[in-house]
Amino acid sequence: MTQKKTYFLNMGPAHPAMHGVIRLILELEGELIVKTEVEIGYLHRAFEKHAETETWNNAIPYTDRLNYVSPLINNSGFCCAVEKLAGVAIPERGQYLRVIASEISRVADHLTCIGANAMELGAFTVFLYLMEGREYLYQLIDDLCGARVTTDYTRIGGVKSDLPEGFVDKCRGVFPKIRKLVADSEALLTKNRIFLDRVEGVGVLSQADALAYGITGPFLRSTGVAYDVRRAHPYLVYDRLDFEVPVGSRGDNLDRYLVRLAEIEQSLRILEQCFNQLPAGPVSLAPWEMRDAFIFEDMGKAGNTALLPRCLAKTCRTLDGGGRDQAAGIRVADPALVMPPKEAAYGNIEGLMNQFESVMWSWGVRVPAGEAYAAVEGGNGELGFHIVSDGSDRAYRVRCRPPCFFIMAALPKLLNGGYVADVVATFGSVNMIAGELDR
Q1: For 126, which of 118, 259, 300, 430 could close a Cys bridge (C-beta 3.0–4.6 Å)?
Q2: Phi, psi of 67 (to 5 degrees)
């Protein structure tokens, strides 16, 4: 009598395709995958508990590390939830700036996913093309926030600063380069027989299963469901913007690639519309009014205060656009809720005290008791925050809905019945971000 035996293969966490943070336990018959167990948790930072121990504004930097490929969307999502609970409506220009930051971040996220997935399948040129495109965007993000990954751009009640001078023109100059790099990559991949053999009809998840697992984002849309938080539950100014929601039909690796590719173009369209609709407003302080912040400090130490009332503090480049003459357009006018401009923190005692009170424990922003849920469309789907406040200076409870968590729950369905060689292609197509799997 012939007896069939299976054997187990550990894949990860010390495996390049598992990013060092995921372990797959595969039960195999030859190279056929019979059963899959997924172990997450190799990256655990206790985001929710950290957010409950810090004041409202101090919790924002922790959101950078959720989906670290598109951190600006995380910043915006957390602040939207707190502002919903506080009953705060941020100025129109501030809303446009959040959309601009989010869409730049989304394009960078999709370029990273497609590029890394292509590289893992051997298309290294595509990876280089798309990383070049991402580098253009990271330079824009650096100009906007002073950082490429740890952005920390939003504040409760607005954003850190207005657009730096020349930012819009620089963006418009970058978009044609992004489109060319995406077109070149598409030409190398979309009709490439080798690539198609690895992704077409592989890693299939039905529309019913995707809905049952609670999957959202490009993954869900690849199965044919046109659900996008920006369209289904418009927030900020998305209801004023014209864009399409690309969908697939088969729910396989190829559809996920095509949906993300199409969404890059839609995000660029959104950005172009935002720049056309952006309400007018100043973008920087007049140079003749400004002195370097360190000169302020030196003058104060020497007792030379005569010049102080006539000048503004020029802070570092990363704080460009954060001056008080921009504050009315991008933040709410409530000193109990928003942090003061840095020039005020450096330039007068009221601003300095306001800054300290905003960040010190038992001081700062106080949000009314209650609870609220707000969601934004993240790089991988619906990114939601459920906030509970007891009326103090920090959250009583924070719960994050990370889009990747639901995709990881469905991963065995994608892999079972396929071959070991398909694991890398399928795992790359779902864009797993371990920072979101904080459980």
Answers
A1: 118
A2: -100, 100
